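Quick one: structure for this chain?
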Amino acid sequence: MNITVDRQLALDDEDPHSTNLPSGQALEQWVMAALTATNYQADEAELTVRIVSNDESAELNEAYRNKQGPTNILSFPYEQIPGIPLPLLGDLIVAAEVVANEAAEQHKPLEAHWAHMIVHGSLHLLGYDHIDDEEATAMEALEISILAKLGYNNPYEVPETP
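Got it. Here's what it folds into:
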């Protein structure tokens, strides 16, 4: 399968969270792992990962989810136009500061938390959700499995404070 991840960096160069960000190659690896685990059937896939400030995340979170403040990741699945097949999956919007803060608060490696967010968001683009307990349990189990294959620990087990 051919996968294209358009990595957009929408942070000011002076933003302290504009460093230690995942590479385009890492993003592709994490997305590919989600696609493979879900038996995604298309020969190609394309999505955008936009890394943003808390301000942009908060604006989008309020506009599209009616929730205040920034959030770690937002997923916007592409809505296919009937009769026009395109390999577009959609867009992932990631607030770099939120992800960094969560990783620190949860005593998790930053890379592992980024991997979790991208896998989580990719699953949303593929139609997975966690609105009810049954869906949440299934989605979390899939995330845990995908991340284990990538060499990361269970993201839902918060390590003990060092």
